[in-house]
Design goal:
Quinone Oxidoreductase, Chain A, domain 1, 12 helices, 2 domains, Rossmann fold, seven-stranded mixed sheet, alpha/beta, single chain
Length: 371
Amino acid sequence: MGSERPYAKSQPLQIEELELDRPGEGEVLVRIRAAGLCHSDLSVIDGKRPRPLPIVVGHEAAGEVVEVGPGVSDLRPGDRVISTFVPSCGRCAPCAAGRPALCEPAFAANTEGTLLSGARRLRDSRGAVHHFLGVSAFAEYATVARNSLVRVDRSLPFDLAAVFGCAVITGVGAVVNTAQMPPGSVVAVIGLGGVGLAALLGARRLEARTICAVDFSDEKLAMARALGATHTVNARDEKSLDAIRDATGGGAQYVFEMAGSVPALEMAYRVTRRGGTTVTAGLPDLQARISIQPSRLVTEERCIRGSFMGSCVPERDIPRFIDWFRSGTLPVDRLLAERVSLAELNAGFDRLADGRTTRQLLMLGTGPQAV
């Protein structure tokens, strides 16, 4: 963690051969075919969200089942699956309340770098290697908990399938589940990476009346317009706050902060109108703090909502979002950018850190087309 940029030179990610155990009770061996490069991976590489080392990162993935462990009866070899980064136990209080993204055993396992069972199935000559968010997808194979997987139709290409496991459920879910945004709403989306653009598509799918997209990148703003934004604002403009308020008629009813930075969240709060809701799915540095006036939360009936994994129930929401894609109302295929190899991962994270791309896909073992 914390290597100097550019990563293409410092090489924080190394290609190595590891020993991988066969699946234990309630686990599945998956051949990884595609994996997205996400800011959650970058936050480990740059040290903003530390994890135990050594670790195999990567968590947004699609692949095919190779072998199932004892107790797994609903998957079979050859099934196509999407990984999710919270392997919900189904029994703790949040899971029982229908909020698997807040699963308590999963949080503990993800923090410790283990699978849901507490086991580590990866090893090198020095000993155990940690898992990242129960997946460790930047590898040819991964042993994961059954509860980390959602089976999908084999006709869905691997590269497209992968983004449903994080970018889509996080961005679209924030609009659909966390905000429960009604049709006709006035919306702003701040930060136009893969998750932010997915949120934009979600707002469009739910028939927002106004969508103001905000970013530093003119290229991403142009893409946002092509995807349905009614207004765009470059956050570098010193009058950007006024421009967002003008575009949204004095402030947006729902503002989605997807940049993962304190200035972006503070901007999101400031352009939320009275009675409105600020939703944040960004993950800034753990030491970051924001400053707000508590009295305005009361007198203006404001709401600030955190959104983790889009408040999704993966077994319910991933198939639903795939159906929306197939119907043409959620064109998430337009988020896909570069395809990279293992050897190109470090350079890919340079592009991600610079904000120069949307969703890059690591491709393993096969091309992007369905087989």
